[in-house]
Q: What sequence folds into this?
Protein backbone atom coordinates (compact mmCIF):
# COMPACT_ATOMS: atom_id res chain seq x y z
CA UNK A 1 0.00 0.00 0.00
CA UNK A 2 1.05 3.56 -0.63
CA UNK A 3 -0.57 6.86 0.27
CA UNK A 4 -0.92 8.77 3.53
CA UNK A 5 -1.14 7.03 6.93
CA UNK A 6 -2.51 8.53 10.12
CA UNK A 7 -1.77 6.71 13.40
CA UNK A 8 -3.47 7.63 16.66
CA UNK A 9 -1.10 6.34 19.32
CA UNK A 10 -1.95 5.61 22.93
CA UNK A 11 -4.03 3.60 25.36
CA UNK A 12 -7.73 4.06 25.72
CA UNK A 13 -7.76 3.49 29.49
CA UNK A 14 -4.87 5.77 30.54
CA UNK A 15 -6.34 9.28 30.83
CA UNK A 16 -4.95 11.71 28.26
CA UNK A 17 -2.96 8.92 26.54
CA UNK A 18 -6.27 8.18 24.80
CA UNK A 19 -6.13 11.46 22.85
CA UNK A 20 -4.23 9.90 19.91
CA UNK A 21 -7.14 7.53 19.27
CA UNK A 22 -9.74 10.27 19.79
CA UNK A 23 -8.03 12.47 17.19
CA UNK A 24 -7.67 9.51 14.78
CA UNK A 25 -11.42 8.86 14.95
CA UNK A 26 -12.16 12.55 14.31
CA UNK A 27 -9.73 12.52 11.36
CA UNK A 28 -11.35 9.37 9.95
CA UNK A 29 -14.73 11.13 9.91
CA UNK A 30 -13.20 14.20 8.20
CA UNK A 31 -11.39 12.02 5.62
CA UNK A 32 -14.61 10.21 4.76
CA UNK A 33 -16.64 13.42 4.54
CA UNK A 34 -14.05 15.17 2.37
CA UNK A 35 -13.44 12.11 0.19
CA UNK A 36 -9.67 12.32 0.54
CA UNK A 37 -8.22 9.44 -1.52
CA UNK A 38 -6.04 6.60 -0.27
CA UNK A 39 -5.77 7.71 3.36
CA UNK A 40 -5.45 4.95 5.99
CA UNK A 41 -6.33 5.96 9.56
CA UNK A 42 -5.53 3.53 12.40
CA UNK A 43 -5.35 3.50 16.19
CA UNK A 44 -2.50 1.64 17.92
CA UNK A 45 -1.16 1.13 21.43
CA UNK A 46 2.35 -0.13 20.69
CA UNK A 47 4.88 2.39 19.27
CA UNK A 48 7.19 -0.46 18.20
CA UNK A 49 4.50 -1.43 15.67
CA UNK A 50 5.02 1.88 13.84
CA UNK A 51 8.08 0.50 12.02
CA UNK A 52 5.86 -2.05 10.30
CA UNK A 53 2.72 0.09 10.03
CA UNK A 54 4.37 2.84 7.98
CA UNK A 55 6.19 0.62 5.45
CA UNK A 56 5.48 2.05 1.97
CA UNK A 57 3.36 4.90 3.34
CA UNK A 58 4.10 8.59 2.79
CA UNK A 59 3.44 10.97 4.35
CA UNK A 60 2.82 9.55 7.82
CA UNK A 61 1.14 11.54 10.58
CA UNK A 62 1.38 10.20 14.14
CA UNK A 63 -0.82 11.73 16.83
CA UNK A 64 0.20 11.25 20.45
CA UNK A 65 -0.10 12.80 23.88
CA UNK A 66 3.06 14.72 24.85
CA UNK A 67 4.58 16.24 27.98
CA UNK A 68 6.66 19.24 26.92
CA UNK A 69 5.79 21.80 29.58
CA UNK A 70 3.40 23.82 27.45
CA UNK A 71 -0.14 24.61 28.71
CA UNK A 72 -2.49 21.57 28.77
CA UNK A 73 -4.22 20.97 25.43
CA UNK A 74 -1.56 22.83 23.39
CA UNK A 75 -1.33 21.28 19.89
CA UNK A 76 2.17 21.10 18.38
CA UNK A 77 3.28 19.92 14.93
CA UNK A 78 6.77 18.61 14.27
CA UNK A 79 8.39 17.42 11.02
CA UNK A 80 10.64 14.48 11.91
CA UNK A 81 10.90 12.22 8.83
CA UNK A 82 13.99 10.95 7.03
CA UNK A 83 14.47 14.41 5.55
CA UNK A 84 14.25 16.10 8.97
CA UNK A 85 16.64 16.23 11.92
CA UNK A 86 16.75 13.85 14.90
CA UNK A 87 14.28 14.25 17.70
CA UNK A 88 15.68 15.84 20.81
CA UNK A 89 15.81 13.22 23.52
CA UNK A 90 13.03 13.97 25.97
CA UNK A 91 11.36 16.42 23.58
CA UNK A 92 8.35 14.16 23.25
CA UNK A 93 7.44 11.09 25.16
CA UNK A 94 10.10 9.00 26.88
CA UNK A 95 12.70 7.60 24.53
CA UNK A 96 12.91 3.97 25.48
CA UNK A 97 15.47 4.21 28.23
CA UNK A 98 12.61 3.99 30.69
CA UNK A 99 11.66 0.45 29.78
CA UNK A 100 9.28 -1.20 27.42
CA UNK A 101 6.31 0.73 28.76
CA UNK A 102 8.21 3.87 27.89
CA UNK A 103 9.37 2.61 24.50
CA UNK A 104 7.62 5.66 23.21
CA UNK A 105 7.10 7.44 19.96
CA UNK A 106 10.49 9.17 20.01
CA UNK A 107 12.24 5.83 20.56
CA UNK A 108 10.35 4.24 17.67
CA UNK A 109 11.19 7.20 15.41
CA UNK A 110 14.90 7.19 16.29
CA UNK A 111 15.15 3.39 16.06
CA UNK A 112 13.58 3.60 12.59
CA UNK A 113 16.00 6.40 11.63
CA UNK A 114 18.97 4.23 12.73
CA UNK A 115 17.60 1.38 10.64
CA UNK A 116 16.81 3.65 7.64
CA UNK A 117 13.15 2.79 7.93
CA UNK A 118 11.63 6.25 8.39
CA UNK A 119 9.08 7.54 5.91
CA UNK A 120 10.44 10.49 3.89
CA UNK A 121 7.88 12.74 5.56
CA UNK A 122 6.76 12.05 9.12
CA UNK A 123 4.67 14.61 10.94
CA UNK A 124 4.09 14.28 14.66
CA UNK A 125 1.05 16.07 16.04
CA UNK A 126 1.37 16.27 19.81
CA UNK A 127 -1.28 17.30 22.31
CA UNK A 128 0.03 18.47 25.67
CA UNK A 129 -1.35 16.07 28.28
CA UNK A 130 -2.32 16.58 31.90
CA UNK A 131 -2.50 13.07 33.39
CA UNK A 132 -2.25 9.35 32.57
CA UNK A 133 -4.22 7.77 35.40
CA UNK A 134 -5.66 4.29 34.90
CA UNK A 135 -9.33 4.45 33.98
CA UNK A 136 -9.43 8.26 33.81
CA UNK A 137 -11.24 10.02 30.93
CA UNK A 138 -9.58 12.71 28.78
CA UNK A 139 -8.95 15.87 30.83
CA UNK A 140 -11.00 18.94 29.90
CA UNK A 141 -8.25 20.89 28.08
CA UNK A 142 -7.14 17.80 26.14
CA UNK A 143 -10.69 16.81 25.10
CA UNK A 144 -11.25 20.40 23.96
CA UNK A 145 -8.09 20.22 21.80
CA UNK A 146 -9.24 17.20 19.76
CA UNK A 147 -10.88 19.24 16.93
CA UNK A 148 -7.82 21.50 16.57
CA UNK A 149 -5.47 18.50 16.50
CA UNK A 150 -7.68 16.78 13.90
CA UNK A 151 -7.60 20.00 11.83
CA UNK A 152 -3.78 19.96 12.00
CA UNK A 153 -3.72 16.36 10.69
CA UNK A 154 -6.25 17.09 7.94
CA UNK A 155 -4.19 20.11 6.82
CA UNK A 156 -1.24 17.76 6.17
CA UNK A 157 -3.49 15.37 4.22
CA UNK A 158 -4.97 18.24 2.19
CA UNK A 159 -1.48 19.44 1.22
CA UNK A 160 -0.83 15.98 -0.22
CA UNK A 161 -4.26 15.71 -1.77
CA UNK A 162 -3.78 19.05 -3.53
CA UNK A 163 -0.77 17.51 -5.28
CA UNK A 164 -2.55 14.44 -6.68
CA UNK A 165 -5.44 14.20 -9.16
CA UNK A 166 -8.82 13.24 -7.59
CA UNK B 1 22.40 10.14 42.32
CA UNK B 2 24.89 9.60 45.16
CA UNK B 3 25.59 11.50 48.37
CA UNK B 4 27.58 11.11 51.57
CA UNK B 5 25.80 10.79 54.86
CA UNK B 6 26.74 12.60 58.07
CA UNK B 7 27.58 9.25 59.67
CA UNK B 8 30.30 8.66 57.05
CA UNK B 9 28.15 6.28 55.01
CA UNK B 10 27.48 6.63 51.31
CA UNK B 11 24.12 6.24 49.62
CA UNK B 12 23.43 5.67 45.95
CA UNK B 13 19.90 6.09 44.70
CA UNK B 14 18.92 5.42 41.10
CA UNK B 15 15.65 7.27 40.68
CA UNK B 16 14.34 5.40 37.63
CA UNK B 17 15.61 2.07 36.39
CA UNK B 18 16.00 1.94 32.61
CA UNK B 19 15.02 -0.75 30.12
CA UNK B 20 12.85 -2.67 32.51
CA UNK B 21 9.14 -3.10 32.21
CA UNK B 22 7.43 -0.63 34.55
CA UNK B 23 8.66 1.87 37.13
CA UNK B 24 11.02 1.12 40.00
CA UNK B 25 14.10 2.32 41.84
CA UNK B 26 17.15 0.85 43.56
CA UNK B 27 18.74 1.88 46.84
CA UNK B 28 22.21 0.69 47.91
CA UNK B 29 23.98 1.45 51.21
CA UNK B 30 27.72 0.90 51.76
CA UNK B 31 29.49 1.15 55.13
CA UNK B 32 33.32 0.78 55.29
CA UNK B 33 33.30 -0.79 51.85
CA UNK B 34 30.70 -3.37 52.85
CA UNK B 35 27.25 -3.55 51.33
CA UNK B 36 24.87 -3.10 54.25
CA UNK B 37 21.56 -2.75 52.42
CA UNK B 38 20.10 -3.27 48.96
CA UNK B 39 16.48 -2.48 48.24
CA UNK B 40 14.56 -2.92 45.01
CA UNK B 41 11.89 -0.24 45.42
CA UNK B 42 8.87 -0.81 43.28
CA UNK B 43 7.02 2.48 43.47
CA UNK B 44 4.62 2.00 40.58
CA UNK B 45 1.36 2.41 42.46
CA UNK B 46 -0.58 -0.63 43.65
CA UNK B 47 -3.38 -1.43 41.25
CA UNK B 48 -5.81 -3.34 43.44
CA UNK B 49 -6.84 -5.85 40.78
CA UNK B 50 -7.52 -8.52 43.38
CA UNK B 51 -9.91 -6.18 45.17
CA UNK B 52 -11.92 -5.02 42.19
CA UNK B 53 -12.29 -8.58 40.84
CA UNK B 54 -14.52 -9.28 43.86
CA UNK B 55 -18.17 -9.12 42.88
CA UNK B 56 -17.44 -9.59 39.17
CA UNK B 57 -18.65 -12.55 37.14
CA UNK B 58 -16.50 -15.69 36.86
CA UNK B 59 -16.39 -15.15 33.10
CA UNK B 60 -14.55 -11.82 33.41
CA UNK B 61 -11.05 -12.50 34.86
CA UNK B 62 -9.43 -13.51 31.52
CA UNK B 63 -10.24 -10.09 30.05
CA UNK B 64 -9.82 -8.05 33.24
CA UNK B 65 -6.53 -9.56 34.39
CA UNK B 66 -5.06 -9.46 30.86
CA UNK B 67 -5.02 -5.69 31.38
CA UNK B 68 -2.48 -6.06 34.18
CA UNK B 69 0.24 -6.27 31.53
CA UNK B 70 0.72 -5.38 27.85
CA UNK B 71 3.72 -7.72 27.62
CA UNK B 72 2.28 -10.88 29.15
CA UNK B 73 -1.53 -10.68 28.89
CA UNK B 74 -1.79 -14.31 27.73
CA UNK B 75 -0.16 -15.49 30.97
CA UNK B 76 -2.91 -13.73 32.92
CA UNK B 77 -5.61 -15.10 30.64
CA UNK B 78 -4.33 -18.67 30.84
CA UNK B 79 -3.76 -18.76 34.61
CA UNK B 80 -7.21 -17.18 35.11
CA UNK B 81 -8.95 -19.71 32.82
CA UNK B 82 -7.30 -22.70 34.50
CA UNK B 83 -8.24 -21.40 37.96
CA UNK B 84 -11.88 -20.69 37.13
CA UNK B 85 -12.32 -23.97 35.26
CA UNK B 86 -10.80 -25.69 38.31
CA UNK B 87 -13.31 -23.95 40.60
CA UNK B 88 -16.18 -25.02 38.32
CA UNK B 89 -14.91 -28.61 38.03
CA UNK B 90 -14.39 -28.48 34.26
CA UNK B 91 -11.41 -29.97 32.44
CA UNK B 92 -11.02 -28.64 28.89
CA UNK B 93 -10.24 -31.03 25.99
CA UNK B 94 -6.68 -31.54 24.78
CA UNK B 95 -7.28 -29.46 21.64
CA UNK B 96 -8.08 -26.41 23.73
CA UNK B 97 -4.93 -26.93 25.84
CA UNK B 98 -2.91 -27.14 22.62
CA UNK B 99 -4.44 -23.98 21.18
CA UNK B 100 -3.71 -22.21 24.50
CA UNK B 101 -0.12 -23.46 24.21
CA UNK B 102 0.11 -22.12 20.64
CA UNK B 103 -1.19 -18.68 21.72
CA UNK B 104 1.26 -18.76 24.64
CA UNK B 105 4.16 -19.48 22.23
CA UNK B 106 3.24 -16.19 20.54
CA UNK B 107 3.53 -14.33 23.84
CA UNK B 108 6.90 -15.95 24.73
CA UNK B 109 8.19 -14.96 21.29
CA UNK B 110 6.99 -11.34 21.60
CA UNK B 111 8.32 -10.94 25.12
CA UNK B 112 11.65 -12.80 24.78
CA UNK B 113 12.53 -11.22 21.39
CA UNK B 114 11.86 -7.76 22.83
CA UNK B 115 13.95 -8.45 25.93
CA UNK B 116 16.85 -10.25 24.24
CA UNK B 117 17.34 -7.73 21.42
CA UNK B 118 16.01 -4.36 22.56
CA UNK B 119 16.54 -4.47 26.34
CA UNK B 120 19.30 -6.92 27.33
CA UNK B 121 21.71 -7.18 24.35
CA UNK B 122 22.74 -3.48 24.60
CA UNK B 123 24.15 -4.27 28.10
CA UNK B 124 26.46 -6.93 26.69
CA UNK B 125 27.46 -4.98 23.57
CA UNK B 126 28.15 -1.78 25.53
CA UNK B 127 25.37 0.52 24.36
CA UNK B 128 23.04 2.77 26.32
CA UNK B 129 20.08 1.30 24.46
CA UNK B 130 18.71 -0.34 21.35
CA UNK B 131 18.73 2.89 19.29
CA UNK B 132 22.49 3.35 19.75
CA UNK B 133 23.03 -0.39 19.15
CA UNK B 134 20.94 -0.22 15.95
CA UNK B 135 23.37 2.28 14.39
CA UNK B 136 26.26 -0.21 14.65
CA UNK B 137 24.40 -3.51 14.52
CA UNK B 138 21.36 -2.86 12.29
CA UNK B 139 21.10 -6.51 11.22
CA UNK B 140 20.91 -7.69 14.83
CA UNK B 141 18.11 -5.25 15.65
CA UNK B 142 16.32 -6.04 12.38
CA UNK B 143 16.48 -9.73 13.25
CA UNK B 144 15.02 -9.03 16.68
CA UNK B 145 12.17 -7.01 15.20
CA UNK B 146 11.52 -9.75 12.63
CA UNK B 147 11.41 -12.43 15.32
CA UNK B 148 9.10 -10.31 17.51
CA UNK B 149 6.83 -9.65 14.53
CA UNK B 150 6.36 -13.40 14.06
CA UNK B 151 5.17 -13.56 17.69
CA UNK B 152 2.82 -10.61 17.18
CA UNK B 153 1.32 -12.26 14.12
CA UNK B 154 0.88 -15.57 15.93
CA UNK B 155 -0.92 -13.71 18.72
CA UNK B 156 -3.17 -12.03 16.13
CA UNK B 157 -3.84 -15.33 14.41
CA UNK B 158 -4.90 -17.19 17.54
CA UNK B 159 -5.81 -14.37 19.94
CA UNK B 160 -7.44 -11.86 17.61
CA UNK B 161 -4.85 -9.14 18.28
CA UNK B 162 -1.23 -8.85 19.39
CA UNK B 163 -1.77 -7.00 22.69
CA UNK B 164 -4.52 -8.02 25.07
CA UNK B 165 -5.99 -10.80 22.90
CA UNK B 166 -9.77 -10.82 22.64
CA UNK B 167 -10.38 -14.44 21.58
CA UNK B 168 -9.84 -16.10 24.98
CA UNK B 169 -12.74 -17.12 27.19
CA UNK B 170 -13.30 -19.35 30.17
CA UNK B 171 -13.76 -22.80 28.60
CA UNK B 172 -11.62 -22.12 25.52
CA UNK B 173 -11.85 -19.66 22.64
CA UNK B 174 -14.59 -17.70 20.86
CA UNK B 175 -13.27 -18.98 17.53
CA UNK B 176 -10.60 -21.48 16.50
CA UNK B 177 -8.25 -20.29 13.76
CA UNK B 178 -8.79 -22.02 10.40
CA UNK B 179 -6.45 -24.85 9.54
CA UNK B 180 -5.62 -23.06 6.29
CA UNK B 181 -4.73 -19.86 8.21
CA UNK B 182 -2.44 -21.83 10.51
CA UNK B 183 -0.73 -23.71 7.68
CA UNK B 184 -0.26 -20.51 5.68
CA UNK B 185 1.65 -19.10 8.67
CA UNK B 186 4.23 -21.94 8.69
CA UNK B 187 6.83 -20.18 6.47
CA UNK B 188 6.97 -17.18 8.86
CA UNK B 189 7.62 -19.51 11.81
CA UNK B 190 10.20 -21.53 9.89
CA UNK B 191 12.16 -18.40 8.97
CA UNK B 192 11.92 -17.13 12.57
CA UNK B 193 13.15 -20.51 13.86
CA UNK B 194 16.29 -20.10 11.71
CA UNK B 195 16.68 -16.57 13.13
CA UNK B 196 16.32 -17.96 16.66
CA UNK B 197 19.01 -20.60 16.10
CA UNK B 198 21.36 -17.85 14.86
CA UNK B 199 20.45 -15.77 17.91
CA UNK B 200 21.52 -18.54 20.30
CA UNK B 201 24.94 -18.49 18.60
CA UNK B 202 25.14 -14.69 18.78
CA UNK B 203 24.32 -14.30 22.47
CA UNK B 204 26.49 -17.30 23.45
CA UNK B 205 29.46 -15.21 22.31
CA UNK B 206 28.80 -12.40 24.81
CA UNK B 207 31.02 -11.93 27.93
CA UNK B 208 29.30 -13.08 31.11
CA UNK B 209 30.24 -11.97 34.64
CA UNK B 210 30.77 -14.86 37.07
CA UNK B 211 27.84 -15.45 39.39
CA UNK B 212 26.44 -18.78 40.51
CA UNK B 213 23.05 -18.58 42.16
CA UNK B 214 22.63 -20.83 45.24
CA UNK B 215 18.87 -20.19 45.37
CA UNK B 216 16.04 -22.64 45.02
CA UNK B 217 14.57 -22.75 41.51
CA UNK B 218 10.81 -23.17 41.03
CA UNK B 219 8.91 -23.87 37.83
CA UNK B 220 6.02 -25.78 36.41
CA UNK B 221 6.54 -29.23 34.91
CA UNK B 222 3.79 -30.71 32.75
CA UNK B 223 3.29 -34.44 32.10
CA UNK B 224 5.02 -34.00 28.73
CA UNK B 225 6.90 -31.21 26.98
CA UNK B 226 8.55 -27.99 28.19
CA UNK B 227 6.50 -25.98 30.72
CA UNK B 228 4.58 -23.17 29.02
CA UNK B 229 0.82 -23.05 29.52
CA UNK B 230 0.39 -25.53 32.37
CA UNK B 231 1.95 -28.11 34.68
CA UNK B 232 2.38 -28.91 38.36
CA UNK B 233 5.01 -27.23 40.53
CA UNK B 234 8.56 -28.58 40.98
CA UNK B 235 11.57 -27.12 42.82
CA UNK B 236 15.32 -27.72 42.78
CA UNK B 237 15.11 -28.81 46.44
CA UNK B 238 13.09 -31.80 45.25
CA UNK B 239 9.83 -30.29 46.48
CA UNK B 240 6.89 -30.96 44.19
CA UNK B 241 3.25 -30.04 44.62
CA UNK B 242 0.06 -29.51 42.66
CA UNK B 243 -0.91 -25.98 41.63
CA UNK B 244 -3.88 -26.13 44.00
CA UNK B 245 -1.45 -26.47 46.91
CA UNK B 246 0.53 -23.29 46.15
CA UNK B 247 -1.11 -21.21 48.90
CA UNK B 248 0.25 -23.72 51.42
CA UNK B 249 3.79 -23.39 50.07
CA UNK B 250 4.08 -19.81 48.81
CA UNK B 251 3.51 -16.97 51.23
CA UNK B 252 3.24 -13.38 50.13
CA UNK B 253 4.42 -10.66 52.52
CA UNK B 254 4.75 -6.89 52.45
CA UNK B 255 8.06 -5.03 52.84
CA UNK B 256 8.02 -1.31 53.54
CA UNK B 257 10.24 -0.37 50.58
CA UNK B 258 8.15 -1.94 47.81
CA UNK B 259 4.59 -1.61 46.53
CA UNK B 260 4.94 -5.19 45.25
CA UNK B 261 4.43 -8.01 47.70
CA UNK B 262 7.48 -10.25 48.18
CA UNK B 263 7.05 -14.03 48.36
CA UNK B 264 8.71 -16.89 50.19
CA UNK B 265 8.63 -20.64 49.61
CA UNK B 266 7.92 -23.01 52.48
CA UNK B 267 8.54 -20.36 55.14
CA UNK B 268 11.66 -18.99 53.46
CA UNK B 269 13.95 -21.39 55.37
CA UNK B 270 15.82 -22.27 52.18
CA UNK B 271 16.35 -18.58 51.28
CA UNK B 272 14.96 -16.73 48.28
CA UNK B 273 13.62 -18.65 45.32
CA UNK B 274 13.75 -17.90 41.61
CA UNK B 275 11.14 -18.35 38.90
CA UNK B 276 11.64 -17.75 35.17
CA UNK B 277 13.88 -18.98 32.34
CA UNK B 278 16.79 -20.27 34.50
CA UNK B 279 14.41 -22.23 36.73
CA UNK B 280 12.41 -23.59 33.80
CA UNK B 281 15.57 -24.64 31.95
CA UNK B 282 17.33 -26.16 34.97
CA UNK B 283 14.28 -28.15 36.03
CA UNK B 284 13.11 -29.13 32.54
CA UNK B 285 16.14 -29.43 30.27
CA UNK B 286 15.07 -32.97 29.48
CA UNK B 287 11.77 -31.65 28.19
CA UNK B 288 13.24 -29.36 25.52
CA UNK B 289 12.98 -30.51 21.92
CA UNK B 290 16.14 -32.18 20.58
CA UNK B 291 16.66 -29.10 18.38
CA UNK B 292 16.61 -26.72 21.37
CA UNK B 293 18.81 -29.10 23.43
CA UNK B 294 21.29 -29.18 20.57
CA UNK B 295 21.31 -25.37 20.30
CA UNK B 296 21.81 -25.07 24.08
CA UNK B 297 24.72 -27.53 24.02
CA UNK B 298 26.35 -25.74 21.11
CA UNK B 299 26.02 -22.49 23.11
CA UNK B 300 27.94 -24.06 25.99
CA UNK B 301 24.98 -24.52 28.34
CA UNK B 302 24.89 -27.68 30.42
CA UNK B 303 21.71 -29.34 31.55
CA UNK B 304 21.41 -26.66 34.27
CA UNK B 305 22.17 -22.93 34.23
CA UNK B 306 22.65 -20.95 37.46
CA UNK B 307 24.38 -17.81 36.13
CA UNK B 308 21.64 -15.15 35.83
CA UNK B 309 23.68 -13.23 33.20
CA UNK B 310 23.41 -16.30 30.95
CA UNK B 311 19.62 -16.01 31.10
CA UNK B 312 19.90 -14.24 27.73
CA UNK B 313 21.13 -17.55 26.23
CA UNK B 314 18.33 -19.46 27.92
CA UNK B 315 15.76 -16.98 26.54
CA UNK B 316 17.25 -17.50 23.06
CA UNK B 317 16.96 -21.29 23.54
CA UNK B 318 13.37 -20.82 24.69
CA UNK B 319 12.73 -18.81 21.52
CA UNK B 320 13.93 -21.83 19.52
CA UNK B 321 11.60 -24.00 21.58
CA UNK B 322 8.64 -21.63 21.13
CA UNK B 323 8.93 -21.47 17.31
CA UNK B 324 9.56 -25.21 17.12
CA UNK B 325 6.62 -25.98 19.39
CA UNK B 326 4.32 -23.64 17.45
CA UNK B 327 5.23 -25.48 14.23
CA UNK B 328 4.66 -28.85 15.93
CA UNK B 329 1.19 -27.83 17.14
CA UNK B 330 0.22 -26.43 13.73
CA UNK B 331 1.46 -29.58 11.94
CA UNK B 332 -0.61 -31.79 14.24
CA UNK B 333 -3.78 -29.67 14.10
CA UNK B 334 -6.77 -31.36 12.57
CA UNK B 335 -8.97 -28.29 12.43
CA UNK B 336 -12.05 -30.08 13.72
CA UNK B 337 -12.02 -29.12 17.41
CA UNK B 338 -14.87 -27.21 19.04
CA UNK B 339 -13.65 -23.76 20.13
CA UNK B 340 -14.87 -24.07 23.71
CA UNK B 341 -16.68 -26.16 26.26
CA UNK B 342 -19.43 -24.97 28.58
CA UNK B 343 -18.31 -24.00 32.07
CA UNK B 344 -21.39 -23.79 34.33
CA UNK B 345 -20.99 -21.65 37.44
CA UNK B 346 -20.79 -23.31 40.84
CA UNK B 347 -19.54 -22.38 44.28
CA UNK B 348 -15.94 -23.36 44.88
CA UNK B 349 -12.29 -22.43 45.02
CA UNK B 350 -10.02 -22.87 41.99
CA UNK B 351 -6.29 -22.66 41.33
CA UNK B 352 -4.38 -22.00 38.09
CA UNK B 353 -0.77 -21.46 37.06
CA UNK B 354 1.16 -20.97 33.86
CA UNK B 355 4.71 -19.98 32.87
CA UNK B 356 4.69 -16.27 31.99
CA UNK B 357 7.87 -15.38 30.04
CA UNK B 358 9.40 -14.20 33.35
CA UNK B 359 8.19 -17.07 35.53
CA UNK B 360 5.28 -18.86 37.20
CA UNK B 361 2.08 -16.85 37.57
CA UNK B 362 -0.45 -18.18 40.11
CA UNK B 363 -4.15 -17.31 40.25
CA UNK B 364 -6.73 -18.35 42.85
CA UNK B 365 -10.45 -17.53 42.80
CA UNK B 366 -13.32 -18.25 45.18
CA UNK B 367 -16.75 -18.25 43.51
CA UNK B 368 -20.26 -18.26 44.97
CA UNK B 369 -22.97 -20.48 43.51
CA UNK B 370 -24.02 -17.81 41.00
CA UNK B 371 -20.44 -17.50 39.76
CA UNK B 372 -19.66 -14.15 41.40
CA UNK B 373 -16.05 -13.80 42.59
CA UNK B 374 -15.80 -13.72 46.37
CA UNK B 375 -12.01 -13.64 46.59
CA UNK B 376 -9.10 -13.41 44.14
CA UNK B 377 -5.35 -13.86 44.55
CA UNK B 378 -2.71 -13.16 41.88
CA UNK B 379 0.95 -14.00 42.54
CA UNK B 380 3.05 -12.61 39.64
CA UNK B 381 6.61 -13.77 38.84
CA UNK B 382 8.40 -10.45 39.47
CA UNK B 383 7.01 -10.34 43.00
CA UNK B 384 8.44 -13.77 43.65
CA UNK B 385 11.84 -12.79 42.20
CA UNK B 386 12.32 -9.56 44.20
CA UNK B 387 14.20 -11.19 47.12
CA UNK B 388 16.59 -13.01 44.73
CA UNK B 389 17.17 -9.84 42.67
CA UNK B 390 18.15 -8.05 45.90
CA UNK B 391 20.33 -11.02 46.95
CA UNK B 392 22.14 -11.01 43.56
CA UNK B 393 22.78 -7.27 43.92
CA UNK B 394 24.13 -7.69 47.47
CA UNK B 395 26.68 -10.22 46.17
CA UNK B 396 27.55 -8.34 42.99
CA UNK B 397 27.80 -4.80 44.43
CA UNK B 398 30.33 -6.09 46.99
CA UNK B 399 32.65 -6.78 44.06
CA UNK B 400 31.85 -3.47 42.36
CA UNK B 401 32.44 -1.01 45.24
CA UNK B 402 35.43 0.48 43.37
CA UNK B 403 33.24 1.61 40.47
CA UNK B 404 31.98 5.17 40.20
CA UNK B 405 28.26 5.73 40.59
CA UNK B 406 27.57 5.85 36.84
CA UNK B 407 29.35 2.55 36.15
CA UNK B 408 27.82 0.97 39.25
CA UNK B 409 24.33 2.00 38.20
CA UNK B 410 24.86 0.54 34.74
CA UNK B 411 26.13 -2.79 36.15
CA UNK B 412 23.27 -3.00 38.65
CA UNK B 413 20.65 -2.31 36.00
CA UNK B 414 22.20 -5.03 33.85
CA UNK B 415 21.93 -7.47 36.78
CA UNK B 416 18.29 -6.51 37.36
CA UNK B 417 17.48 -6.94 33.66
CA UNK B 418 18.71 -10.56 33.98
CA UNK B 419 15.27 -11.18 35.46
CA UNK B 420 13.34 -9.26 32.77
CA UNK B 421 11.29 -7.89 35.66
CA UNK B 422 7.75 -6.83 34.89
CA UNK B 423 7.08 -4.13 37.42
CA UNK B 424 3.59 -3.31 36.21
CA UNK B 425 2.65 -6.89 36.97
CA UNK B 426 4.38 -6.83 40.33
CA UNK B 427 2.58 -3.78 41.64
CA UNK B 428 1.02 -4.58 42.60
CA UNK B 429 9.88 -0.82 39.32
CA UNK B 430 13.64 1.25 39.15
CA UNK B 431 15.60 4.50 40.48
CA UNK B 432 19.14 3.71 42.04
CA UNK B 433 20.41 5.10 45.36
CA UNK B 434 23.90 4.13 46.67
CA UNK B 435 24.88 4.94 50.24
CA UNK B 436 28.74 4.55 50.53
CA UNK B 437 30.94 4.51 53.60
A:
Amino acid sequence: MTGPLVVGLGRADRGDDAVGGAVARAVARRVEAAGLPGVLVVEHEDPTALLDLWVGRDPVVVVDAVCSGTPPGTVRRLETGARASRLQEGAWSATGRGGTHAFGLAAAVELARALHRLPARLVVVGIEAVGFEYGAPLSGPVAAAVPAAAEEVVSVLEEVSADVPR
Amino acid sequence: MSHKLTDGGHVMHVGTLARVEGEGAMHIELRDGQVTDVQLRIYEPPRFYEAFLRGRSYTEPPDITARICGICPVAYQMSACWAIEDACGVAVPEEIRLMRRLLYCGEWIESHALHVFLLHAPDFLGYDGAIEMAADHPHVVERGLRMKRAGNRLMELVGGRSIHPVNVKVGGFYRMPDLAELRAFRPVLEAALDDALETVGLVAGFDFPDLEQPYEYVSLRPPAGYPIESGSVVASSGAAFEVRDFPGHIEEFHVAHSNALHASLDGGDRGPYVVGPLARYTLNHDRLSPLAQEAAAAAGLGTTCRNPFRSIIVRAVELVEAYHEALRIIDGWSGSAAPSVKVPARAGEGFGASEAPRGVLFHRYVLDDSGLIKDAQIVPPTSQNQPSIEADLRTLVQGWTGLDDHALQHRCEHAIRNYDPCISCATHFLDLTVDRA
Notes: The longest strand of chain B covers residues 348-356. Chain B touches chain A through 34 residues (CB under 8 Å). DSSP finds 15 helices and 16 strands in chain B. The longest helix of chain B spans residues 94-125.
